[in-house]
Design brief:
By secondary structure, the protein is of the alpha/beta class. The strands form two sheets. The protein has a seven-stranded mixed β-sheet, with helices on both faces. Strands 8-7-9-10-11-13 form a six-stranded mixed β-sheet, with helices on both faces. α3 links the parallel β4 and β5. It is globular, with a radius of gyration of 20 Å.
Length: 341
């Protein structure tokens, strides 16, 4: 497959990092390939956007289809997102996926104009159009496991949560984390902080904000910190490593991320959200001529969310592992229902 680097020329359309245009071998698929439009923070966040890119890459390779992934612009508007998705649609990409709830208005507008193209949006289920797949997750379930791990690993009975932006989606992460931690120790002390009120203020894209918040929580006594903050989470992990305390990653298995390699010994685990799997499954459905639509929700039972145990230091903590495994089974069996707020 030939890959050429292409830049989108239209103002406000962001940068495109790859473009290729082969066709699936089975003959059922005739589109130009996959269109993927990143959320704030872009590719390289080692978290949410990179999880989407992993599914994009896997689908490109496995189904031998082309693809273009496009970066966001700084301080962009909904109109910029509409322009970006329309350009992908006009170019013949199918499916086209908006990575993040911020794409909801743009997906709604562009999907209505291109009813023969399948659109996907991650973290939003407000669109009921027949050609839109709403790819959402039970983030509170994986966050519950993070809370159990944190409460079992802390030596001070004092842990922390840092959310990127104070919005309902991130409240789910907080709620699950708190419930999980309190299931181990009802009296555990939990620091809570949101970096910004809106995405535009940089809550998901500012490692310095994450680092400052983590330093504050560490100063207050927390010795395990869980961040649901996209790119900002890199700053949390950096601060945790520098103070030799535990961090818990999010969305991707952050222990395995190259950009975080020097901090990985202090990444206890990661609350996983299988964004890559959702992207891959949507592409597969389109290539096979049976496009997914409506709400597609990932949970612990389906493998849509989970807890990464890649760190050997975590694996050696048998009591922590056992508690997390039991919590997972209790949720899957319906013995525990995790709150979302």
């Amino acid at each position: 497959m030939t890959v050429a680097v292409v830049a989108l020329a239209a103002a406000g359309c962001g940068k495109s990092s790859s473009d290729s245009s082969s066709t699936a071998e089975n003959g059922k698929y005739s589109g130009k390939g996959i269109g993927l439009a990143y959320d704030i923070g872009g590719k390289g966040d080692q978290s949410f956007n990179d999880a989407a890119y992993s599914g994009f890459q896997k689908a490109e390779t496995e189904f031998k289809v082309g693809g273009r992934d496009v970066e966001p612009s700084d301080n962009e508007t909904d109109a910029d997102k509409v322009q970006r998705l329309e350009q992908l649609a006009k170019s013949g990409y199918n499916p086209i996926i908006g990575v993040g709830f911020v794409y909801a208005p743009a997906v709604k507008e562009v999907a209505a104009k291109y009813p023969k193209i399948t659109f996907g949006i991650i973290d939003d289920n407000s669109n009921t159009s027949k050609n839109v797949a709403d790819m959402v997750f039970h983030e509170e379930q994986s966050s519950y496991l993070a809370g159990v791990a944190a409460a079992k690993a802390t030596k001070k009975n004092h842990v922390g949560f840092i959310g990127g932006v104070d919005i309902p989606l991130i409240h789910k992460f907080e709620a699950g984390f708190i419930q999980g931690a309190q299931s181990v120790n009802p009296k555990i002390k939990i620091e809570k902080q949101y970096l910004t009120q809106t995405p535009q203020e940089g809550g998901f894209s500012s490692p310095d904000k994450g680092e400052n918040a983590a330093n504050g929580q560490i100063d207050s006594g927390a010795d395990v910190i869980y961040a649901a903050a996209g790119l900002s989470g890199q700053g949390v992990i950096k601060a945790a490593a520098e103070h030799k305390i535990w961090a818990i990653g999010v969305d991707s298995d952050q222990y395995k991320q190259d950009a975080l390699a020097k901090y990985k010994d202090y990444i206890l685990g990661s609350a996983l959200k299988n964004v890559g799997g959702a992207v891959y499954d949507l592409v597969k459905s389109v290539v096979n001529g049976k496009p997914l639509s409506g709400e597609v929700r990932g949970d612990l039972k389906s493998g849509g969310v989970g807890f990464a145990d890649s760190n050997p230091k975590y694996q050696a903590m048998k009591d922590v592992v056992a508690a997390v495994d039991k919590a997972k089974q209790d949720i899957v069996d319906g013995k525990v229902t995790v709150k979302t707020q």
